[in-house]
Amino acid sequence: MAEPTLYLFDGYNVLYAGDFADPRELVDLLASFVAVKGARGVVVFDGVGEDRTYGPLEVRYAPHADAVLERLAAEFRATEQVCLVSSDSAVRGTSGQEVAKRSSAGFIRELESQGIKRNGRTDWRSDSTARQGTGWSGSDAIGPVKQL
After folding, report:
1. pLDDT, the chain, mean
2. Which domains does the chain show, CATH number per domain?
């Protein structure tokens, strides 16, 4: 299967799998990840908030994030290489067989295997010295995006 061009993230599911302190921390990581991949992404959180765009990442809020993720997967799976990141078996099961699926914990492990790993509760860094003030380093670093 080709590299994904669209990543769909189950916001709170990934947030808790990575033990992030705050959704802004996750949004920073995901925006950097999709930018480095040359893809785009949508992270959907359950609840109320202001929808925003950070580079190639859209942040959305919905009363039922699962329904939005299912709709987005159905809408784009015929025209793009879609990857759904969620550990929710219902969402994964209804997204379609054309959609690549990764569990939230598996996605976090994949980031760690690429040299981005957790050094303490809120500090995502690569093995080399992090760039001052960004928490990122190495060839995958593009710096942080604006905070929510």
Report:
1. 79
2. 6-126 (3.40.50)
